[in-house]
Amino acid sequence: MTLPFAPTPTKRKRQIILRTEVSGEPSRAMRANARAHFKVAMGDGRRWLDELIADSGQSIELIASREHRSPRSIRMTISLAFLSPELVKAALEGRRPRGLNVRRMTEMPMLWSDQWQALGIRPPAAADA
Question: DSSP characters for 103-128?
């Protein structure tokens, strides 16, 4: 007798469900310390991406050992360099919802339009064009 087996995941994916006002926009802005952390991580991600592009001898593993971080952490931080410019600007200005942190931003899809959709936020008019 053969029974199919699919183990239950030990970690459940969690989502932050944002409360919205009548206007459709979130009620509270991203916290100041989350914005500061995001700004530092964004700078690191862009700097590391530039290093990888400029130097063919550079690798994620070398950056990870130099920065005393894991290669996974470096890859996740580099993914911030691919965020929509409008989304980055809004996050740095504190116009994005509370609960939107660096970790959540590293899990964004690559397409800019999909990033807004993943957040459940309508993109600004400039991002639609």
Answer: HHHHT--SSHHHHHHHHT-PPPHHHH
Sort 96 into a burial class: Cβ within 10 Å, 0-12 / 13-18 / 19+.
Answer: buried
C-alpha of 7 from chain center: 29
Domain boundaries, the chain: 32-107
Whether the predicted model's global pTM rises above the 0.70 cut? no
| Average pLDDT of the segment spanning 54-76 | 94
| Tokens at 67, concatenated | 């920065």
DSSP label of 59: -
3-state DSSP assignment of residue 26: strand
- C-alpha 109/C-alpha 127 separation (Å) is 16
C-beta separation of 77 from 44 below 8 A:
yes
38-60: pLDDT as tens digits: 899 999 999 999 999 999 899 99
Among the residues of the chain, which ranges form H helices?
32-54, 60-67, 71-78, 85-92, 102-106, 112-119, 125-128
